[in-house]
């Protein structure tokens, strides 16, 4: 078999080398990612530029370090102490992402493990600081939203110079010691029963007042009516009633006046 000419060999070697260089120099950054360029023969990390999505050509001796920059989340269960020293467990989720324009600084100063080295310790410290202000009863009953907002504020303050953006803290659960939880539930039940009793008592008092006012009104009305019913009015009313009865087919004899009735009509006989 004849040997290939040296020119062809060199040409093939050049093509292979060119392909390697192109592959090594081509970088594709996917959606939701960004890159940090490490310049081997220059000053190291390019601190001035964050490389966005798409196709990039770099020198083959350089390296592109790619980070996710979309919203990320981390969940953690933290054991912390309340204001009176009792241990509680806070189950929280934090939404975060690296600061896009400061990504080169994040990589250079914190590295790829910034979540474990910086973020999670910051969350734990914030949770300890916030939960330590409240009693177990406050944590169990009515302070969930307040705790979330305060932990978020604490985390944001602690990570303000760490090139990490924290957008939300969600406290999913606050777990108390079993005995403390049972005692709080008993107390809440007793308070609810007391409120229910006060409500029933207030309703009964209002009903009694209503009945008293109604009875007093009726008494006044009867008093006024009695004062207005003179003998003359009674006689007139009796006559009106007698005339109506006289028109009835059952009536036999109607005697007007006389007797012990004070002049009122007397009806005698019926069917």
Instruction: Write out the strand line-up for the largest beta sheet, numbering strands in chain order.
Output: 3-2-5
Radius of gyration: 47 Å
Number of helices: 7
- One letter per element, helices H and strands E, the order comes to HEEEEEEEHHHHEHHEE
Q: Specify the CATH architecture of the largest domain.
A: 2-Layer Sandwich
Transmembrane segments: 7-29
Organism: Nonlabens xylanidelens
GO cellular component, one term: membrane
GO molecular function: peptidase activity
What is the topological layout?
Layout: H1 6-25, E1 26-29, E2 33-39, E3 44-45, E4 54-57, E5 63-68, E6 72-81, E7 87-98, H2 103-109, H3 114-131, H4 136-141, H5 144-158, E8 164-175, H6 178-228, H7 231-246, E9 251-255, E10 266-270
Please tell me about this protein's structure.
- The structure is a single chain.
- By secondary structure, the protein is of the alpha+beta class.
- It folds into 4 domains: 6-68, no CATH class; 72-176, 2-Layer Sandwich (Tetrahydropterin Synthase, Chain A), CATH 3.30.479.30; 188-228; 232-270, no CATH class.
- It is 49% helix and 25% strand.
- It contains 7 helices and 10 strands.
- It has helices at 6-25, 103-109, 114-131, 136-141, 144-158, 178-228, 231-246; strands spanning 26-29, 33-39, 44-45, 54-57, 63-68, 72-81, 87-98, 164-175, 251-255, 266-270.
- A 3-stranded antiparallel β-sheet has the order 3-2-5.
- Strand 6 (72-81) and strand 7 form a beta hairpin.
- Helix 3 (114-131) crosses helix 5.
- The longest helix has 51 residues, at 178-228.
- It is elongated and about 150 Å long.
- The N and C termini lie far apart (151 Å).
